[in-house]
Design goal:
Strand order of the largest sheet: 21-22-1-23
Structural class: alpha+beta
Number of helices: 14
Shape: elongated
Number of strands: 23
Helix content: 25-40%
Bound molecules: ligand EPZ
Radius of gyration: 21 Å
């Protein structure tokens, strides 16, 4: 899917089920490398990053298959071989193989990971944390080479990095003594990873808080389920807000979306939750004021671009303050091409609501940026063309068919 054609300006309606979370599935699948045994993981989204993770596991000697949303893995014969650069460079989460392989084998070699270009994305918290756990980690010409059976200890994270928390949690599974991670990230995807590891016998406490404790334990085969994708849900909510209409999303966790639903409610959308669904009714929009991104439970940086796209026509001025990544306004140019009035100054973007948007030709920049372009185009009159749309395949299962099911005129051209 390189190019998408969108005919905007039609309200959405209908009901759609949300898939499992990309950012939970990737660490959970990677965790299977740390735990020799059979793994059955339900609700895995059929997306490119999941397939890349399965390819890495297969390369390392596991058997891995995804059937009807369930991943079946046998990691008993897996070995600690270098992760191929061609696979690692496709996604950020390949760096988690460091922690997983260290836990099981006491050595790992992983090339610098790829992923969305959002400015500097250092790995210092991963590497200094692993060093605190007694592992020697060196960068040899763009390959991170780590050696040493992890000991116990306390790691303090300077910032609540999701990836560093996951890497250290995985590495801690093989530690000879208790491990504490202070300043840990609290995202729902970390809670999902910890739940899966507990199903494999791990002794983990404190997930969802900033203090994580891992004690040595015997690990075994496991079964579990990936939590709902809050960013997929946020994207559909934004599409409905941009287009108007009434959409119900099922199979999700409304609490994990409170910042996004709170913002869209302030913008004038009526949002009704049940325990596992959300219904959005959207009409005329007004500015919700200021949106400040931050680590969970603050407003998620991944939703900043789609929410900005949804509010291009909201009356008044909406300010976006991006505090997590230094370069996460790459979608702004395309949204301006649709007619959005946006000014960027450093980490601040101000969006002055316009009366109408019109279709444009846009180029996808990154996963959520491309999603924002789809949302913007759906709210614009006329035809838009999104090229470089393959970014979407990394993280959205069936985005085009999903939007079509809600009545959008959208088509993947190739
Ligand atoms: C995860 O990336 C997600 N990716 C990202 O989702 C998400 O945007 C991000 O968390 C924040 O929520 C996956 O889960 C695969 P971080 P990650 O480490 O782990 C700084 C999407 O669109 N930092 O929490 O890479 C870093 O520069 C993607 O689905 C350090 O300084 O994010 C950033 O400013 C994109 N040193 C902040 O922490 C480190 O060693 C948060 O990054 C690590 C991070």
């Amino acid at each position: 899917m390189q190019t998408i054609l969108i005919q905007g300006g039609r309200p959405l309606s209908g009901t759609l089920a949300i898939h499992g979370s990309k950012n939970a599935a990737l660490p959970v699948l990677t965790a299977a490398a740390a735990v020799p045994g059979l793994h059955r993981i339900e609700n895995c989204p059929d997306i490119r990053d999941v397939h890349t993770t399965l390819e890495i596991l297969t390369h390392l000697g596991a058997s891995a298959a995804l059937k009807d949303g369930t991943a079946y893995l046998d990691t008993r014969a897996l070995v600690s071989a270098p992760v191929p650069r061609a696979l690692a460079c496709r996604m950020r989460s390949s760096v988690l193989f460091l922690g997983a392989l260290l836990a099981r084998f006491g050595r790992a070699e992983v090339p610098s990971p790829g992923g969305c270009v959002l400015g500097l994305r250092p790995l210092d918290q991963h590497l200094s944390g692993l060093a605190r756990l007694g592992v020697d980690c060196q960068d040899r010409e763009g390959r991170m080479c780590a050696e040493g059976k992890p000991t116990g200890g306390t790691v303090i994270l300077r910032c609540p990095s999701v990836g560093a928390t996951e890497n250290l949690l995985l590495c801690a599974l093989g530690a000879s003594g208790p491990v504490q991670i202070l300043g840990a990230a609290k995202e729902p995807e970390i809670v999902c990873l910890a739940a899966y590891l507990r199903a494999c016998g791990a002794k983990i406490r404190g997930d969802g808080t900033s203090v994580l404790t891992i004690e040595p334990a015997e690990l075994h085969s496991g079964e579990g389920r990936i939590c709902p994708d809050r960013m997929e849900a946020a994207t559909y909510l934004c599409a409905a807000a941009a287009c108007g209409g009434s959409v119900t999303l099922t199979d999700l966790c409304p609490q994990d979306l409170e910042q996004v639903t709170g913002t869209l409610s302030k913008a004038g959308c009526a949002i009704t939750p049940t325990e596992t669904s959300l219904t959005i009714r959207a009409g005329a929009l007004q500015s919700p004021g200021m949106v400040v991104t931050g680590p969970h439970p603050a407003f998620p940086t991944d939703a900043q671009a789609p929410v900005m796209a949804a509010l291009l026509r909201a009356e008044g001025t909406t300010l976006f303050h991006e505090t997590v990544f230094e370069n996460r306004f790459r979608h702004v140019k395309a949204l301006k091409d649709l007619g959005g009035e946006i000014r960027v100054q450093g980490q601040l973007a101000s969006v002055r609501g316009v009366q109408a948007l019109s279709g444009a030709r846009m180029e996808g920049t990154d996963l959520r940026g491309a999603a924002a372009m789809v949302v913007g185009a759906l709210g614009a009159e006329g035809t838009s063309v999104l090229t470089q749309a393959q970014h979407l395949e990394r993280g959205y299962a069936d985005l085009v068919p999903g939007l079509r099911a809600l009545g959008a005129q959208i088509e993947a051209l190739d």
